[in-house]
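Hi R.,

Here's the chain you asked about this morning:
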Amino acid sequence: MKIILAFILVVSFSSKSNADVGKETGLEIPRYVSLKSNDANIRVGPSKNYPIVIKYIKKNYPLKIIEEYQEWRKVEDFKKNIGWIHKSLISGNRTGLILTSNNNIELLNTLGGKVVGKIGHGNIVKIEKCKIDWCFIEINSFKGWINKKYIWGVKVKEIIKINFLQIFEDLYWKSINFLDDIQNRF
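And here is the predicted structure, written out as tokens:
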């Protein structure tokens, strides 16, 4: 039994050590970041001497880091454009881009809950937290849960900032929705 447990531990630690990490930061590669300003240049190579390929003019625009070299990060956007950006122009704040063929995606107060708003294609949202298939996002003064499949800027099964208190928050909102349903019936 001890041998099996030791084997499982060795395998689990070795698989974590084989994960891709950035040579400069030691952070996971790929990972998502966002732009710090409304003026950011993506270049052909990792230096200001390289020509600009794309100029982004939208603060908080999400990008995926796919490589690191000294002070530069190789990034990809949702259209698969690739280039290099200086690390001073990016932030670890998590944002996402809403991608949908439908007109609007509904924001829910809890999973399977009441609609609290709608959001359209191309909007940039702040990602507050994510469960396996759902993310709690914020845009302007609206907050709510949306299906992760509509967000570019988060990995498929990535979990962000979910702790054990989330169960109580979910129960609270389900109770409120249940009481509202009962009240509306009478």
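One quick note: The chain has two domains: 19-93, 97-178.

Cheers,
M.
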